[in-house]
């Protein structure tokens, strides 16, 4: 028989670290609080604080005579966004973002479907490598590479010439609005580069959503007499839609706020990101730059609310 009662709780460890370990073990909420406080402070002060400062700046105005900022609350700066020149910038950016998103979804869905249904083993690894590899290279290097590819003397023009299809390229460049002297200074060139850069962000969420679609549902649809088109429309697309919407969050928002691609590839007509840059730096109109910056925030807030209702966040 033992002379002393044994206990299942070990004695406390000595030293500062031992005391802290015992305190955290007894009070797990304290450990959670200390772990979450630094990132929450960073998010609250640096990120949200800067956004609030930006929002505050948008309610000021610039004196037309002195060029100085008038620190009085006004909505005149937002009224300037409705001027034809500024409203065209917003409309142009939203149309480009929507076009890139729709085209990325149309291209990305077949690729994602093949990877989810047919790629196995090493071929799935090749798929992920092929999708992720462009993301590992420098953003600016890719843009300038496309600048050379799309230039009038670039490889794309050379390919069209060798295929005796230069007339087709010239016809495309002659189209109003989207055309230009070359693809590198046209809306079409800007659109192509946007799709190339953001396409992986559409493919990966779509592929993840398609992998969660049970195969027996597709077989059951076929057994019940549905054609492949009906199966796609009534079974596959609704179940994959959250993944497509999740991918569209990336493609739409990234296109909406990007200013580097339109600055390097495209015409002289501005997008929202370029407008913010020019108003902040060249023109010195900080309130108008802040008002332009609020536009994508409002658009994305509405877009995210719709995406959440569609269950898109479950596919991220």
Describe the structure.
It is a single chain. The protein is an all-alpha fold. 72% of the residues lie in helices and 1% in strands. The protein is built from 14 helices and 2 strands; from the N terminus they run ααββαααααααααααα. It has helices spanning 15-26, 28-57, 76-80, 84-117, 122-136, 139-150, 155-162, 166-173, 187-211, 215-223, 228-257, 260-264, 272-282, 286-309; strands at residues 61-62, 69-70. The chain has a two-stranded antiparallel ribbon with strand order 1-2. The chain starts with 14 loop residues before the first helix and ends in a 7-residue tail after the last helix. Mean pLDDT is 83; it is low at 1-5.
Question: How much is the average pLDDT?
Answer: 83
Strand content: under 5%
* Low-pLDDT windows of residues: 1-5
Distance between the termini: 60 Å
Shape: globular
Biggest β-sheet: strands ordered side by side in the sheet:
1-2
The H-and-E topology, N to C, reads as: HHEEHHHHHHHHHHHH
- The percentage helix is over 70%
Number of strands: 2
Major sheet, described briefly? 2 strands, antiparallel
Q: Count the helices. How many?
A: 14
**Broad structural category:** mainly alpha
Any idea what the radius of gyration is?
Answer: 27 Å
Main attributes of the structure:
about 325 residues; mainly alpha; two-stranded antiparallel sheet; 2 strands; about 70% helix; globular; disordered N terminus
In summary, what is this structure?
The protein is built from 14 helices and two strands, in the order H-H-E-E-H-H-H-H-H-H-H-H-H-H-H-H. It has helices at residues 15-26, 28-57, 76-80, 84-117, 122-136, 139-150, 155-162, 166-173, 187-211, 215-223, 228-257, 260-264, 272-282, 286-309; strands spanning 61-62, 69-70.
